[in-house]
């Protein structure tokens, strides 16, 4: 099971699509429980935990990270961070991470426009530190660029910049949809995003044995096709993944700190009860793309009042066309590579719970 542990509700940045952490009344800046209590619960409920530190910005509270990693050395660990405070955590902890997800949106101009001036260069410092650590100590396992994709993004330019120019192991992205004010996502997708995705898919199709695993959304969709499809949200929200908020509540989704439907219980009292299957809406259960989409995002499905219905339908349309591009461009290349023995069948498999990714942008 995947456990998101919010070390704090506070953040050291104020990115435009997010606004900077959670209000303290919903997610206090410091946990109200001790690390021992958290570790005792995880041990009792889960023999094979994957633990990702999350926030706010998790490095605002490195103490909890160190305590948990010391108390539960057998778990697999990861972190989702903006990386700016990387010096707050000693390198032996960094080296133990199985995955590090660093927030960066693409080229410098785009990253700084949305995340703040100078952020790009500071993230690069963290990346250089992690790369050097990988060489010297053999860890962290993989460094993944975690992008927020806005109407300014040129998807193939920005993903390839992160993978080829900067040397991230992989890239994953989320669309700036639903939690930002409404914007014409369908028009942008037609004019920029989908043509860019097609170019990116062609790049992957040239050498899928090397490149498929580097573009997380493509890998996750191809994996679903070959491995029976998703029966729930790919991120696992509330069924295979839970979040421990700093106030001790167990949540189905790490960003749903305000929403009652997301509360599964309280630390110490929670017996492992999971989100109700009804939280996958009828609309998705009837959709022919469900096996490859999984419903995309529980939070967006539940909080559908932020955007007008026609924009949510455009978002579904973008998701379906994204899947179509993977099916028409990437999958035939994977088929050929498998037939020729250039790719191992096992390399097609992707488990988003190991990396805390959502698969569908
Ligand atoms: S494309 Fe839309 S309606 Fe279909 S499964 Fe995905 S989120 Fe649900
Ligand atoms: S994809 Fe949606 S439901 Fe899943 S963790 Fe992210 S915000 Fe929560």
UniProtKB/TrEMBL annotation:
- Keyword Metal-binding present in the record's keywords: the answer is yes
What name goes with this protein? Radical SAM/SPASM domain-containing protein
Tell me the organism: Pyrodictium delaneyi
Q: Which GO terms describe its molecular function?
A: iron-sulfur cluster binding; metal ion binding; oxidoreductase activity
- Please give the Pfam families that the UniProt record associates with this protein: Radical_SAM
Q: Which residues form the Radical SAM core domain?
A: 1-211
Task: Read off the InterPro entries from this record.
Answer: 4Fe4S-binding_SPASM_dom (IPR023885), Aldolase_TIM (IPR013785), Pep-mod_rSAM_AF0577 (IPR023819), rSAM (IPR007197), rSAM_sf (IPR058240), Sulphatase_maturase_rSAM (IPR023867)
Which cofactors are required for activity? [4Fe-4S] cluster
Q: Which domain of life is it from?
A: Archaea
Taxonomic placement: Archaea, Thermoproteota, Thermoprotei, Desulfurococcales, Pyrodictiaceae
Record key words, sorted: Iron, Iron-sulfur, Metal-binding, S-adenosyl-L-methionine
